[in-house]
């Protein structure tokens, strides 16, 4: 689980669509996230929710 979340904690502004304010804001928020090492402290239910949300947002903003 931690490895999966660590992947999500890397910057992906390059995959975000240009010109969409929501996608731009999401890209900026992803870059401001805490270090990947901190995900081990996230409860599994929250980690699953975060991963699902991130997957949907990055898919929408490609």
Structural class designation: mainly alpha
Helix-strand string: HHH
What is the number of domains? 1
Average pLDDT confidence is: 72
- CA-based gyration radius: 12 Å
The end-to-end distance, rounded to whole angstroms, is 24 Å
**Fraction of helical residues:** 55-70%
According to DSSP, the number of beta strands is 0
Taking the sheet with the most strands, its summary is: none
What form results from the Cα inertia axes?
flat
Summed up, the helix count is: 3
Strand residue content: under 5%
Extract low-pLDDT stretches: none
Description:
It is built from 3 helices and no strands. It has 62 residues and is mainly alpha-helical. Helix content is 56%, strand content 0%. The protein has one domain (2-7, 15-60). The model has no long low-confidence stretch (mean pLDDT 72). The chain has helices spanning 2-8, 21-31, 44-60.
Short description:
The protein is mainly α.
Write the layout of secondary structure elements.
Elements: H1 2-8, H2 21-31, H3 44-60
Short descriptors:
single chain; about 60 residues; mainly alpha; 3 helices; about 55% helix
